Amino acid sequence: MFNALVLDNANGFSASVQQLDESRLPPGDVTVAVEYSTLNYKDGLAITNKGPVVRHWPMVAGIDGAGTVIESSHPGWKAGDTFVHNGWGVGETHWGCLAEKARLKGDWLVRLPKPFTARQAMAIGTAGYTAMLCVMALEDSGVVPDAGEVLVTGATGGVGSVAIALLGRLGYKVVAATGKASEEPYLRSLGANAVMDRAELGKPGKPFQKERWAAAVDTAGSHTLANVLAQMRYGGVVAACGLAQGMDLPTTVMPFILRGVTLAGVDSVMVPVAKRQSAWDRLARDLDLSLLESIIEEVPLQAAITKAQQLMDGQVRGRVLVRVAP
């Protein structure tokens, strides 16, 4: 038997921590012991039933996990190997990692880089891994540290916090956009050079505005992303990875055809394993691990449901680390 956070809709939606028998685990070629998981925005949507995340019921929540392989029929994994898992529809169509045990596909797993413990890997989680993918997208488009200011929206969230930490350590001049003025000391401690009120970006604006940003990491979408695009400098690049404000994009083609702006979409769910491993290896090299403790709040599995509601209510800063192992 093992504990798991189970979502069900048999008699109306419910979320509860239950004991399950291992025989109920879904098909997969690797069985793992999960030490730590985390709460991402998608997890919050699923656990609070505020979005159509879950596709099959009942579902064990948790798109992220890190721990140790128990048994494996996959040629690339053996008992005792340490792993990180992000995405691949886990917690949506396949039982997830907010559970003491999970059965996954070996092709979904990434080897835990040696500098990281399972706890540190989940302090980073999909949010931090996505932030790294955003930084890599900016680099791939030729954005260098002396190009100018780089804007990060949703700055106190998981993606935003790690993006600031990464960009700051790499030498970029980072401006953090947030609606929480009291968090300015926190954002500056991560590496932000300046902090701005997100309200300046959150309302409908002109389709073409004064040039400001050399690059941006956007987690908001909607009017925020539209305004960011309208304020990009010539040849600027925006890495878009979220829709916290909305999935709409009320903009025009003007930034793209008059300033040569690039909008780079960043997906974290279905990224090929080689690129995932590269992103995690970069995190091991470029992220100041001493900052992780200031970014995270650790809770036990039994508290994850309450914390998910707080996440959706905007009451969480940084990353929520979930201690799964007993």
Describe this structure in words.
The chain folds into two domains: about 140 residues, Quinone Oxidoreductase, Chain A, domain 1 (Alpha-Beta Complex), CATH 3.90.180.10; about 140 residues, Rossmann fold, CATH 3.40.50. The protein has ten helices and 16 strands. Strands 3, 5, 6, 7, 8, 15 and 16 form a seven-stranded mixed beta sheet that branches. Strands 11-10-9-12-13-14 form a six-stranded parallel beta sheet, sandwiched between helices. The longest helix has 23 residues. The radius of gyration is 20 Å and the shape is globular. The model has no long low-confidence stretch (mean pLDDT about 95).
Number of domains: 2
The level of helicity is 25-40%
- Give Rg in angstroms: 20 Å
Would you tell me the overall average pLDDT? 95
Estimated share of beta-strand residues? 25-35%
Q: Which blocks of ≥5 consecutive residues have pLDDT under 50? A: none
Q: Please summarize the sheet with the most strands.
A: 7 strands, mixed
Tally of individual helices: 10
**CATH superfamily heading of the largest domain:** Medium-chain alcohol dehydrogenases, catalytic domain
CATH architecture of the largest domain: Alpha-Beta Complex
H/E order of the elements?
A: EEEHEEEEEHEHEHEHEHEHEHHEHE
Number of strands: 16
CATH topology of the largest domain: Quinone Oxidoreductase, Chain A, domain 1
Structural class: alpha/beta
Structural shape: globular
- What's the CATH first level of the largest domain? Alpha Beta
Distance between the termini: 12 Å
